[in-house]
Amino acid sequence: MERKKAIEVQNVAKSFGSFQALKGVSFDIYDNEFFTMLGPSGCGKTTLLRMIAGFESPTSGTIRLHGRDILDQPPHKRRVNTVFQSYALFPHMTLEANIAFALENLGWENARIRDRVAQMLDLVHMTPFARRRPAQLSGGQRQRIALARALASEPEVLLLDEPLSALDLKLRQAMRDELRALQRATGITFIFVTHDQEEALDMSDRICVLGAGEVQQIGAPNEIYEDPENRFVADFIGETNFLPAEVVSVEGDRATVTTPLGPVTTWHKGAVAGAPAMLSLRPEKIGMEDQAPGEALHGTITGRNYMGGYTHYTVTVNGTELRVSKRNAVSHGASLAVGAPVQLAFRPDSARVLAR
Amino acid sequence: MSWRDFRIWGLAPAWVIMALTLVLPIGIVVLVSLSIRGAYGGFDWGLSFDSYAKILFEEDWDGNLAFTPQYLAIIGRTLWLAGLTTLICAVLALPAAYVIAQAPARWKAVLVYLVTLPFWVSMIVRVYAWIIILGNDGVIEKTLRGLGLVTDMDSLLFTNGAMLTGLVYSYIPLMILPVFASIEKLDPALIEASHDLYGSRWVTARRVILPLTLPGLMAGAVLVFVPCLGAVLEPILLGGGKTMMMGNLIQTQFGGGRNWPFGAAIAVTLMVLVMVFLMLNALRARREVGHA
């Protein structure tokens, strides 16, 4: 199925003085997609979002909205709305008036505005609060009104600038589900900016990992996590062990490397025979004791962090430290003490060879 | 001493200062306004409302009272000029304060300093400067004539316009500063949100920036309007003493006119006007708080 492009970002670069915030990035975002831009602070993700909204303009490159170049349009002419990090609800207006604001500016008739405002309040379960002002709401309620306000005019694209960062943990979990449901219900393209990988993995159709002003990888959440394109992505998304490796041979998508844990043959990205590389091995992919099929490695536990649902162990094998996480499947189950000898094993296919 | 006692007696110094500097002088002015004019200036203590009646009525040769609008006109002109000054200050201060608030941090302090700079120069000197600018053969007239735009022009000085110019010039810093403070408090994200929600610059100014800077504008309005009501210098120097404001009237009665009770009566009237204005403002502010 040919999917329609909602946003096309082409060779967009942005410099602030001598600092290059974006070094020429290009990607497409499709209609009805929940697209997340993920990266550490300073990676350029917010700058990119603000360019789509029209608050900043790129030093070079183009941005198209449904095929039209929008860079010469001021923000109030772009059919794109933003949910701000601070929500930016108008404090002097009731919630109704906040939601109606965009519709009034678009010149809708009063009756139609009334209907849409009621419909939006209903959509975010805030109907009883219509006449209140933002100061009288909790954080989660403000969040919902900010969403209702931004969605009321049915923008072509909705931009969300770290909208969950101001909420506490429980509420954040609940709002994730609500956001996802809202995106499905409205069918509007969501572009979500966050530095929280868990949020990104949970909600997105596709994730664009940005680092150092460049696109590091674009893909579905499981692709990003399981098949990282490079060291940056493997490091930024989740936790991993990086082991120094020498590439012995490369055959298509697979490479054989020697590591401190012995030779490993698995999928690779950018490995060259004879060159140094890294082996990325996620802590949860390593089996400890009887969990492990395959040939076992002998090691000693040198550190332990109890996390509730999991325990993270540091295990030293042949002088190499490995992080191993183990699910605490039984309450007060026998936990392994520091100094205890253990056997480790992992499936080679679960590891990834990455260029150094 | 208990905490309760301390709360009462601890404030004693403040009470004494308030009594000596506020209640006592105002009380004297009120008493003087109710007393009778002395034969050779000064006054004799008494209880008479003649001085207040004099604001509205004139005693003719036969001792009959007839309505006279002359003082009412001065009160009206004072209110009108003070009101207009406040309005013009507000209109000019908004963009000025906005520019200062948007300036880079290191310029902001400099610009605020420049706004307050005129206060370092004597008020009389500053108002005199306007005589040189507006006067016959002054800066404006010479410039216009030099450019050949006019050959003959009426004097700009000694007009209501000149007075207004002087008043706006004198008091506009008192408007710019509170407006600047309220614009600076304004979350820039709100302005972006307005643009984002299809609000043009005009819509954003009218529906977002103006309502949210209203508290600053109102504070500025009090700071400008109240001293304008009592302005003395501008009418004398720029109005040429032909067109009086209440401040001049009071000054004349205490000075040349030698009618202290009448001067005091006008002063009390002025004070009541100011208090009414402040109360209306306070009521509005309280309503505002009730809404938020």
TrEMBL record, chain A:
Keyword ATP-binding: yes
Any matching Pfam family: TOBE_2
Molecular function as annotated in GO: ABC-type polyamine transporter activity; ATP binding; ATP hydrolysis activity
InterPro entries to which the protein is assigned, alphabetical: AAA+_ATPase, ABC_SmlMolc_Importer, ABC_transporter-like_ATP-bd, ABC_transporter-like_CS, Mo/tungstate-bd_C_term_dom, NA-bd_OB-fold, P-loop_NTPase, PotA-like
Domain ABC transporter: 7-237
Keyword terms of this UniProt record: ATP-binding, Cell membrane, Membrane, Nucleotide-binding, Translocase, Transport
GO biological process, one term: putrescine transport
Catalytically driven reaction(s): ATP + H2O + polyamine-[polyamine-binding protein]Side 1 = ADP + phosphate + polyamineSide 2 + [polyamine-binding protein]Side 1
Keyword Cell wall biogenesis/degradation recorded: no
EC number: 7.6.2.11
GO cellular component: ATP-binding cassette (ABC) transporter complex
Known function: Part of the ABC transporter complex PotABCD involved in spermidine/putrescine import. Responsible for energy coupling to the transport system.
Family, per entry: Belongs to the ABC transporter superfamily. Spermidine/putrescine importer (TC 3.A.1.11.1) family.
Quaternary data: The complex is composed of two ATP-binding proteins (PotA), two transmembrane proteins (PotB and PotC) and a solute-binding protein (PotD).
Protein name: Spermidine/putrescine import ATP-binding protein PotA
UniProtKB/TrEMBL annotation, chain B:
Keyword terms: Cell membrane, Membrane, Transmembrane, Transmembrane helix, Transport
Main location: membrane
A family per Pfam: BPD_transp_1
Membrane topology: Multi-pass membrane protein
GO biological process: transmembrane transport
Record CDD domains: TM_PBP2 (cd06261)
Organism: Gemmobacter lutimaris
Protein name: ABC transporter permease
Family statement drawn from the similarity comment of this UniProt entry: Belongs to the binding-protein-dependent transport system permease family. CysTW subfamily.
InterPro entries in UniProt: MetI-like (IPR000515), MetI-like_sf (IPR035906)
Single GO cellular component term: plasma membrane
UniProt-annotated location(s): Cell membrane
Domain of life assignment: Bacteria
Domain ABC transmembrane type-1 residues, every copy: 75-281
Membrane-crossing residue ranges in chain numbering: 12-36, 79-101, 110-135, 155-180, 216-240, 260-283
Keyword Transmembrane: yes
